[in-house]
Amino acid sequence: MAGDGQPVALVSGASRGIGREIARQLAADHGYLVLAGARDPEGADRPDHDAISFVQLDVADQASVDRLAERVRSDPGRLDALVNNAGVYGTSDGVADYDLQHAHEVLETNLFGAWRLAKAMLPLLRQSPHGRIVNVSSGAGQLSDMRGGRAAYRISKTGLNALTRILAADEAGSGLLVNTMCPGWVRTDMGTSAASRSVEEGADTAVWLATLSDDGPNGGFFRDREPIPW
Length: 230
What we know:
Blueprint: E1 8-11, H1 17-30, E2 33-38, E3 52-56, H2 62-74, E4 81-84, H3 100-110, H4 112-127, E5 132-136, H5 151-170, E6 177-181, H6 199-210, E7 221-223, E8 226-227
């Protein structure tokens, strides 16, 4: 149970990499009780912090999302920030060669997973005095710099950006702030060891957006805490 006034965050895809670091920073640096979502909580790389609790969550599975939503309503009974971090990469194929069944699987996690989880958690987020939704996207989804290859991943992230803008507009005036961000090329299993950024750097903007003041941006796309083109 969250302490009186203690904010609560839910981070999907938190078993490793950027998601794990977002959870750690929210708990260690900002005093949040963090529910760290993982498909296999027992196999997660757990940060050493008492305020982080791992919970079973598969964003591509409606039943898993519904179970978690019911659990959060019961205990801790509040939610102040949702970070939609869960994502898969898919293959590097372009449009002509992409297996459409595999493309569906990528979109199911990266786009519909975030949509599904946001829908389930919106009632609690709307009750928070400082509700925040952060969607972890990618520069690969920027229409202003769209290139070939990685077709399903690119489309899923472009869709996630559109979801952000629509939800931000839908919730305008409610106090709920909805933004998306690109962590950059980060040294994770997805980004590989050749990447230029640490997980700490990759998580920073997501944590900033999850903890925005009430006069912070809504419906924006950010990298390094600065707006970037769509």
